[in-house]
Amino acid sequence: MLKLSVVVPFYNVRTYAPDALKSLELNARDDIEFLLVDDCSTDGTGELLERAARELPGAVHLRRDRNGGLATARNTGLDAARGEYLAFLDGDDWLAPGHLARVLAAIQALNCDFVRTDHVQVTGRERLVQGVPYGPHGVVADPRTAILPAGRSTSVDYPYAWAGMYHRRLLDQGLLHFTDGLRTAEDRPWIWRLHRGARSFAAVGLPGVFYRRGIATSLTQIGDERQLDFIRAFDQVLSDTAEDHESAALLPKAVRTYCAIIAHHLGSIERFEPAVARKLRSMSAGALGRMPRELLDAALNSMDTERSSLLRKLRRRAGAGASA
């Protein structure tokens, strides 16, 4: 068995794909495979990946017949993976030389189900290290202990799949696949399921992934209907968490995070197309209406005035519409 499989989805990132591919070359080893998933690109990205499959050691080019989004593309790579460990990279990001070897050595030494790493956020020429919101580094712990408290940023609020490495047993247990078809927030149900279902994890620092922010091809910069998949993603977080044996303890965190994400999108609603903005308000009101009332009240009471007022106003409008 290969030691590591790295799943790298690409979709219309011809401008940035060469950086990603060069960084994979600088991480190549005989026991590492790179699963390059072309999610039906139309801009020439596919041709770059065809060449990489010939020239990049360990590269495997996987072509999808139709565009399915990041979650589905990652699943395509996971289905083909042969490694004892798994990692991810997005096609518009890149790795520091030797990063994979360092993380692989860390997870093997710790002998845990998965590790989480810091990363470098890249905005234009600015570089900023973003750390895993979990205190002790290099200490193996129960992943459930990193979910709470509800009112503070924790490991489930750091959902980036590429910021870590995962033992294959998690794939065999059904914990590494993503919800098929999600176009955004695909990593939210994923990270919650991982922290509820895995037995051991550790934070290890090692900020060797460079994550581009604010680029035109990023879905976070596009105000179309695909952005609204965050509603479906967080509905799944709530429904999955409600079935957990510790649901009473975990649901307040899930509800508060959902509310914070809704407030974030409503706070920048001007970036959405008008029809999508209307749908965002409607779907967000519906989401608030589905939340357990006591937990929603507690979440709103714990938030700052600006966000809580925004959500309370939306809830009142929805209630008035329903009573009418």
What does the main sheet amount to?
Answer: 7 strands, mixed
Overall morphology: globular
Radius of gyration: 20 Å
Distance between the termini: 63 Å
Q: Approximately how much beta-strand content do the residues carry?
A: 15-25%
As a percent range, the share of helical residues equals: 40-55%
* Topology order in helix (H) and strand (E) letters: EHEHEHEEHEEEEHHEEHHHHH
Q: How does the helix and strand content classify structurally?
A: alpha/beta
Strand order of the largest sheet: 3-2-1-4-9-6-10
Mean pLDDT: 94
Low-confidence stretches: none
What can you tell me about this protein's structure?
Helices cover 43% and strands 16% of the residues. Strand 1 (4-10), helix 1 (17-25) and strand 2 form a beta-alpha-beta unit. Helix 6 runs parallel beside helix 7 and helix 8 runs antiparallel to helix 9. It is α/β, with parallel strands linked by helices and 324 residues long.
